[in-house]
């Protein structure tokens, strides 16, 4: 079964929704039978590249409010993040253009490191306060998940994987996705936003049953005496 997730690395609800989905899969008993594919979405491609501006200024400008009011707004989001054991540090977060981050994720995915770089990019922005729009930061993150830094830098300095990124965005447009996170579960069910946890769990369960997946057994007790590979434990 495949679950597709459209998200952006500067969207606070995208990280929350990611954790909710992971919890739903873990609790479902279908781990190992569900593939999660992360898709690109750009909330604001006009954001300056290489900026290290605090997020409070742009947030205040967007909603025509004071910096202090913008800080108050983020407190509610931080509280929501704690529900899934994420400890957002809005004071350290930096505004970022995420085009290069999405290209890096596409490149990493082609090398079997898509899940690792997606998690690291979100962690870098929301927990570590790193400027994920900068090439040097992205190269370091790539190295941290086991990718070649030199190759990552060469890729980021060019235009590779832009087509793949914009293809995701076009598919989102065709699906009428207007905000993220957005989840498509087995091409049958859509979930928009970081919804209540029970909705994720119910939808994953419903789709898994309909797909004919076999739930893992819940083992009880410690392992007793048994025979395996032609040998019996008789001690």
Automatic annotation (TrEMBL):
InterPro entries: DSBA-like_thioredoxin_dom (IPR001853), Thioredoxin-like_sf (IPR036249)
Gene Ontology molecular function, alphabetical: oxidoreductase activity
SUPFAM superfamilies xref list: Thioredoxin-like (SSF52833)
DSBA-like thioredoxin domain location: 3-204
Protein origin, superkingdom: Bacteria
Protein name (database record): DsbA family oxidoreductase
């Amino acid at each position: 079964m495949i679950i597709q997730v459209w998200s952006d690395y500067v969207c606070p609800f995208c990280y929350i929704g990611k954790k909710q989905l992971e919890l739903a899969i873990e609790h479902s008993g279908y781990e190992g039978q569900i593939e999660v594919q992360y898709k690109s979405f750009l909330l604001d491609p006009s954001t300056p590249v290489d900026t290290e501006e605090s997020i409070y200024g742009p947030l205040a400008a967007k909603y025509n409010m004071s910096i202090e009011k913008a800080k108050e707004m983020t407190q509610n989001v931080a509280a929501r993040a704690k529900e899934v054991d994420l400890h957002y540090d809005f004071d350290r977060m930096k505004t970022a253009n995420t085009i290069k981050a999405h290209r890096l994720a596409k490149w990493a995915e082609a090398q079997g490191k898509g899940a690792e770089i997606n998690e690291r990019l979100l962690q870098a922005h929301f927990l570590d306060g790193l400027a994920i729009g900068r090439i040097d930061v992205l190269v370091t993150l790539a190295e941290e998940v086991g990718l070649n830094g030199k190759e990552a830098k060469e890729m980021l300095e060019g235009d590779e994987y832009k087509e793949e990124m914009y293809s995701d965005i076009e598919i989102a447009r065709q699906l009428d996705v207007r905000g993220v996170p957005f989840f498509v579960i087995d091409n049958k069910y859509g979930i928009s936003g970081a919804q209540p946890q029970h909705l994720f769990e119910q939808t994953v369960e419903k789709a898994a049953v309909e797909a004919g997946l076999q739930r893992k057994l819940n083992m009880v007790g410690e392992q007793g005496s048994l025979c395996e590979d032609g040998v019996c434990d008789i001690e």
